Amino acid sequence: MISLPGSPATSLLRVLFLGLTTLASPLRAQMEVHVSTSLTKLQAVEGAEVVLPAWYSLHGELSPTKPKPWEVPTVMWFFLEGKDKNMSQVLTYIGQVTMSEPRASLVHSMPSRNVSLRLRDLQEKDSGSYLCFVNLQDNQGTVKGQSSKHLELNVLVPPAPPSCHLRGVAHVGTNVTLSCQSPRSKPTAQYQWVRSPPSSQVFFAPVLDAIHGSLSLKNLSTSMSGVYVCKAHNEVGSAQCNVTLTVSTGPRATVVAGAVVGTMVGLGLLAGLVLLYQHRGKALEEPANDIKEDAIAPRTLPWPKGSDTISKNGTLSSVTSARALRPPQGPSRLGSDTPGTEA
Questions:
Q1: In the prediction, which pLDDT does 38 show?
Q2: Cα 131 from Cα 139, distance rounded (Å)
Q3: 208: which strand partners?
Q4: How many domains does the chain have?
Q5: 0.90 exceeded by pTM
Q6: What is the DSSP string of 52-108?
Q7: 233 and 100 in a common domain
Q8: Range of the structural domain that residue 83 is part of
Q9: Residue 22 counted as domain residue
Q10: N or C: which end of the chain has fewer CB within 10 A?
Q11: Any idea what DSSP says for residue 124?
Q12: In this predicted model, what pLDDT tens digit does every residue of 66-90 receive, in sequence order?
């Protein structure tokens, strides 16, 4: 609960409250604050609103009446926080002025003997003890009485949407666990697992843990495939989630998938190595071929034939095919190839 801003006025109100409760004499207690016995402990849902009922009356009155013209009430509502019961102001009405935190207001316009408090847009942190204090004076400032009453408020929270998970490998013959957990719930949520149509099924202990939200499925078969719904619920609301179970058949899916992937990777690496080897082989062969094609073949010495003669027109003519090995002739001197004089 958010307390009123700290200011001299609110500090004065605290002092006033403590002073009035300390100094007032029982003889002057001529009024009393009332709270219905059945409404001293209230429950409400987070996000809604609640009314903390309280009213005061003068002693000797048989039924509630309108305030008398001389009545000048001072009304204070306090929230007692935590185990230490630290007091914080929720609303104060004094001198025809009302001060309150944004979500708090009086149900009835003042002056009124009905001093019920309305709280809107409840939050879980609003749970706790509330104190209603009324000090009654006359128009002369004389205290006619004072009284206070406590009420308990418990703000309940519907389960927040849970999250569903599958733990394990859904393979024929194996075991899996379906888990479900709501992150926020007051009181603590209970859990129920069901299987959706067309194969509807409701689960109970021992396969179902309603406290922790787990469902154990053992010795899976393909017929157990389907949509499983978890419902988290408490006394003020519910929420749900679902998980789809697909039971695989044959060898374990993970082993098969791993083998297939490993084989494909191995084949890919092998093909890459072959292509790399072929590419490097071709790269080494091409320079060698270039050298052979560009090289000039060496000259071979002619093998003159023994029967070759030089004709008068300077051409060789062969009269026999027999070859005679003779040493190569050196270059002839100028004019040596002129035919000789006939005898």
A1: 86
A2: 25
A3: 215
A4: 2
A5: no
A6: E--EEEETT-SS--PPPTT-EEEEEEEEEETTTTEEEEEEEEETTEEEE-TTEEESS
A7: no
A8: 8-156
A9: yes
A10: C
A11: G
A12: 888 899 999 999 999 877 778 899 9
According to DSSP, residue 198 is labeled T
Q: Is position 329 within any domain? A: no
Q: Tell whether 151 and 185 lie within a shared domain.
A: no
Query: Where do the H-state alpha helices sit in 204-252?
Result: none
Q: Are strands 128-137 and 163-167 parallel, antiparallel or unpaired?
A: unpaired
pLDDT digits (tens, 9 = 90+) for 147-182: 999 999 999 999 999 999 999 999 999 999 999 999
In a domain, residue 52? The reply is yes
The long-range contacts involving 106-114, CB below 8 angstroms and separated by at least 24 positions, are: 106/75, 107/51, 110/73, 110/75, 111/67, 111/71, 111/72, 111/73, 112/67, 113/55, 113/56, 113/57, 113/64, 113/65, 113/66, 113/67, 113/73, 114/54, 114/55, 114/64
The structure tokens 């007091």 sit at: 87
Best CA proximity match to 198, nearest among 225, 216, 175: 225
How deeply is 135 buried, as exposed, middle or buried, from its count of CB atoms within 10 A (0-12, 13-18, 19+)?
buried
CA distance 233 to 190: 5
Q: Are residues 39 and 87 in the same domain?
A: yes
Residue 166: both structure tokens together: 């599958």
